[in-house]
Amino acid sequence: MQFSLLKSYTVHNWRDLSPISGLLAMGNFDGVHLGHRSLIQEAKKQGEVTILTYSPHPAIALGRVKSSFLLTTDTEKQSLLNSLSVKNIIFINFNLEVSNMLPDTFAKEVIKERLNPDRVIIGYDHHFGKGRKGTPDYLQSLGESLGFEVIVYPEVRVNGEAVKSTVIRELIHEGEMEVVPKLLGCTYSISGTVSKGHGLGEELGYPTANIKLDTEYKLLPPNGVYSSIVRIKQGDFPAMLYIGSSPTHGIEERKIELHLIDFTGDLYEQRIECDVYSFIRKVKCFSSKELLKESIKRNKEEVMKTLKEVYK
């Protein structure tokens, strides 16, 4: 995944939106997967494209999920959408007022009166309005009466599998990190800010950067060691990613740690991003720190083997 190290997006109240030119692409766009990319590329063939998406994600705002849900944080989503060369990206505040809007009201007051696009494009499974009652067919009929065309983009499939955020989330839950890019269109990434840790990795000769996520809702793969490539302002580095507790040290807290290979320096409070490639091993309690250190050495060798085709 390619995205900026900077956190730079604005969440707008729907009342503050102003008219756009060209086509409006509307949706959650969680993951900015191959289906989303295909929809946006099709939209760009017809002119300039403005993205309308929601913050927080409606499923979070409505309390349908508690944690470990988002494929992309708002920062990641903004950067990925920017990489597709769209004209503008609008995050609308999905607050109680918006969640209670009837489909007719949303279409009239938000889409028509505030944004006034020439055309709107949505995915075949996109719903909007209170209770998700606004279907693609219904938006098309509303568009006819309000004066804007609605394009419904069909399902995208890869090797017979529907490209959907729900499918990709399930693959990540199952730890199928080498399968995920086939639907996502890029390697799954985790980003955040480097925070103070316990210094356990440094004691073992493998200093780590502890990652504080931007949101608790970011979906993580199962606990374990993974090969990854890290991006920081100093450049790109191969890395061992560790997700989980520290049973050998008696620490139950789940953490995200990165050991950057061939890097020395202080990363505290820096933005950091890592692409997750291959699963190496599960979390294990070792009977001694020496055995843990030997395992980390083997893990490092395995990480470099798995990355030989992507990090040169």
In brief:
With 312 residues, the chain is of the alpha/beta class. Helices cover 28% and strands 28% of the residues.
The CATH homologous superfamily of the largest domain is termed HUPs
Q: Count all strands and give the number.
A: 14
Secondary-structure element sequence? EEHEHHEHHEHEEEHHEHEEEEEH
Placed side by side, the strands forming the largest sheet appear as 1-4-3-2-5-6
> In terms of structural class, how would the helical and strand content be classed?
alpha/beta
By CATH, the architecture of the largest domain is named 3-Layer(aba) Sandwich
As for the number of domains, it is 2
Q: Give the low-pLDDT segments.
A: none
Number of helices: 10
- How much of the sequence is in beta strands? 25-35%
Sheet bearing the most strands, described? 6 strands, parallel
Radius of gyration: 22 Å
Average pLDDT: 94
Helix content: 25-40%
Distance between the termini: 17 Å
CATH class category label of the largest domain: Alpha Beta
The best one-word shape is elongated
CATH level-3 fold name of the largest domain = Rossmann fold
Any overview of this molecule?
This protein has 312 residues and is an alpha/beta fold. 28% of the residues lie in helices and 28% in strands. It has helices at 34-44, 58-61, 74-82, 96-99, 103-115, 136-146, 165-173, 180-184, 200-203, 289-306; strands at residues 11-12, 23-26, 49-55, 88-93, 119-123, 149-153, 157-158, 161-162, 188-195, 209-213, 224-232, 235-246, 251-260, 271-281. It has a 6-stranded parallel β-sheet with strand order 1-4-3-2-5-6, with helices on both faces. Helix 5 packs across helix 6 (136-146).
